[in-house]
Amino acid sequence: MYWRTFIWAVALLLLGSREAACHVMSESVSVVLHQTNITRLTAKAIHAAGYHLHKIEHLSIMDAPKLDHIVVEDLTKMPNLKSLFITQAPRLHRVGPLPPLPELRTFIITTSGLLEVPNLSHVHDNKKDNNSLAYLQAIDLEGNHIKRLSPHALRVRADQVSLNYNLLEDVPAFAFKNAQISKLSFRGNTKLKYLDENAFASNLLLRQLDLSNTAITSLPTAGLQNLETLRIEKTPSLKYIPSIYEFQSLQKAYLTHHFHCCAFRFPERHNPTRHKLYETQVALMQAKCANAGPQRTPQFRKRRSLEPIKILPPQNNSNTTVDSLEDDVSTATTSEEYDANMMDEYFSDSGSWEDANEQGEFHDPVNNSRGIGFTMISARCGNFSISPRKVECTPAPDALNPCEDVMGWSWLRASVWFVIAAAVVGNVAVLLVLLTNHTEITVPRFLMCHLAFSDLCTGLYLFMLAVVDLRSYGEFFNYAFDWQYGVGCKIAGFLSVFSGQLSVITLTIVTLERWFAITYAIYLERRISLSAAAKIMMGGWLYSFLMAGLPLVGVSDYSSTSICLPVESKDVGDAVYQGAIFVVSALAWVTIVVCYVQIYRSLGGGESYGGRGAAAAAERRIANKMALLIGTDLLCWAPVAFFGITALAGVPLVDVSHGKVLLVFFYPLNACANPFLYAILTKQYRRDFITLVARTGHCNWLVEKYKLAATPPPTAHTNPSAPAHLMPLVDSAYQRSQSQYSQGKDSTEVTL
């Protein structure tokens, strides 16, 4: 804060120089006590320093480590005091109620030890000229240790009040009752969580409010009818934004979440009840206008309100139109803006403090003749409107956070349930059969269980999105906070990334195992053993957990979109994380393509199928199955590629609205296809399934039908009259008796 002190010192020196040049016109004095050791601020101490009390207009105390008390009664001995500035006084914990100081315009105590707001309600009690409507230009209590607002302490007329970067925890009811404050700021009160429903009630002039970087969870609307600028930035705890109908004069809103701006853009979906009431009022006014006749001229009705603070004399407003009622509002004073523009705000170059007060150039007026408190109504027969306006809101909805439901389109909302059914039912069927079968555990069976589990997680992820979409249909932005920043979205995002990465790893290992089994069919020692497969999959699980868990600890974020995917890249860590996912998926797909090409070449064409036509048919069948496996993998990982490139490039190549189509139809493609391609459509799975059914004792007709279909037809070497020898349900002896090359062929047939 030393640079801030330096700015003040320079400003005071400039002011002093200007006042010295104008000594003939004014004999005002500016007192600056820098790095002083005084412990009590009294009139006697100032007089002892050589200053005439009646001439003091500006009193500044900077860097006073021992100051712990201000004798406020002595301030009345300085009747022309216009500004009191104290900074860096850590022992100054309390300031008594200020007595009447009719000329006081600026009261500033910053980076000190204040524990409560001084009572300033009587500062202008003895103002002789009641028509001038005296007010405080600025009350700045930034950077103290204020924990509470004393009752009626700020019952003042003030242009701006700053309580930034304190320790406030709540704002009680009617904290600003009967006050007339234009700009109020609570920025940086990180412990501020609770605002009473009537916290701002009875303050009829509040135009700018700053609650940025706080911990509030709700925003009351009482007393904010005339609010024009609202700042609630860097406040992720705010769940719900009130309806735009609660803010009759709001023009600009600087918020934290995109979906809050969606609420302002679609008020009919944000608050249907209030919007219906609004439409009813419009209909009544249209009917009234129709009854009044087509030539009725525009009318304006003015509601009674407290007399506004004015610097300039009131002007005639009889011919005011709706356009003339609109004005550009300067933004609320924040800590950063305040420090940078301190001299311009508090020491105007256009004249002295007194001149500025008289000419109205010191600050924007708290209120003027443009009419805060007006309800603007324009009515003509057949042409009716009530204050048509658009709120300038940021952050505006973008490609990652559009103003739409989770699924966006109706056909997509219906289609996702078919995808979920296929993914969940198929993978549950595979797990049920493989885990309940008591035959020897093989490497393919072991890997199929992992693949089915990972794909089942994808189905559960889509199920969670579909349920949220049904629950929030038509008004997702009312549920967006609880979903995107709640546990549900984190679980869904975790399942999505975990299942995607585990599926990638498992499919790659399955392909490599098949490649080893076929390429090196006669070398048993080169096969992947069950223990080796278990170790590899353990590493795959750890990797998947790591990639799915990083967004939970701040690397990227699941809350950046409604579909809970970590697609937003804010820093280098996010880019590295998303790049790693993209690279792993790309390498896995290339590995699978290379392995299947090698498998196809190792089969030696169709020579072993005997006959040219049979060979060609076999080649086509194998090629088609390989193309299907490779194509489903590519289509499944295409969304990952698109979103990965988007995140790395920082440009929405695929926005969320269109990305949802990829999410529903392509991303879960493996989850739907894998259980059929790798398990359900294979002969081994059918044998395992019939064995499970036979063990239950039900559906004997199905078992008999399978036995009949599995019985080889009679030949010339068999006795047709003798009972046929049925194939066992689980022919483990058959598997053990196969030759090494035949094992490879059978393995290929099961896979392909």
TrEMBL record:
Q: Which InterPro entries match?
A: GPCR_Rhodpsn, GPCR_Rhodpsn_7TM, Gphrmn_rcpt_fam, LRR_dom_sf
- For this chain's UniProt record, which GO biological process terms are given? adenylate cyclase-activating G protein-coupled receptor signaling pathway; hormone-mediated signaling pathway
Keyword Cytoplasm carried by entry: no
Residue span of the signal peptide, if any?
1-22
UniProtKB keywords? Cell membrane, G-protein coupled receptor, Leucine-rich repeat, Membrane, Receptor, Repeat, Signal, Transducer, Transmembrane, Transmembrane helix
List the SUPFAM superfamilies.
Family A G protein-coupled receptor-like (SSF81321), L domain-like (SSF52058)
**What ranges does the record list as Polar residues composition bias?**
314-323
Picking any one GO molecular function of the record gives:
G protein-coupled peptide receptor activity
This protein's name: G-protein coupled receptors family 1 profile domain-containing protein
